[in-house]
What does this fold into?
Amino acid sequence: MASHLHFSSGMNTVSKALALLLTIAALATPAAAARPDVFFDGERVSAIAFETPLRDLMSALGAATGTRVRFTSDAGNELVDIEIFEVRVAEAFARILAHRGHSQVGSEIWISSPVAGSAQDAPVVAAGAHASYVAELGDHALGSHNGRGRLVATAELVRERSAAAVEALHGVLDAERSAQIRASALTGLDRSGDLSIESLADLARDEDAGMLRRKAIQLLSRHGVGNELAAATLTELADTAQNPMIRLTARTALRSLEIAA
It folds into this structure.
């Protein structure tokens, strides 16, 4: 069922983009969590996707930006996690396809299979920023009264991958209430391999977390092998969660956890 969002003509580009992204995060159902969310204002593009096939993400970006996307037969099925906020189209494509063979001519882009491993395994930047810069990002992500400022600071922390950035992301995941910002922090922590089972369990139980609950449940099954809290949380949700999709996801995750053990 299509949904239509209307924005006042008086809103600026940034406000429209953030309004759309935050509305999607608030209203999305678990069943729609794998679909990419894309917003293009004619100059800059924002895109969010969790465990989404690259083919689906690029097709959505192509449709939004007027770019014709073509894949070789063996490309596009790998799953990607992406958060891009208000960047130019060329930069968005460059970030997403940095570790995949591709070529672009005019408004047409050809994509082949990965050439340097998964983007999730590759450094986001060649070197982390200096410690004082990371500290400033952490303070802004945790303490700013401006939602957009926290969102941007968190996205920068995800790119950093330093120990200080990871510590700040833990704080964001635990303290932040914006689903969009928590999603960015969760993805960064997943990439870093430094996830807290306690934080994942809290997020999986949080009925206000929306689509992030399924993501947390899936990560519990992936990172919680042999952990009593992970098993107990999944068992509880499989039996008692009011949302049937959460129950189903928890049951599947619990089976995966038991098999892995």
User: Anything to note?
Assistant: Strands lie at 37-40, 44-53, 68-71, 79-88, 100-105, 108-114.
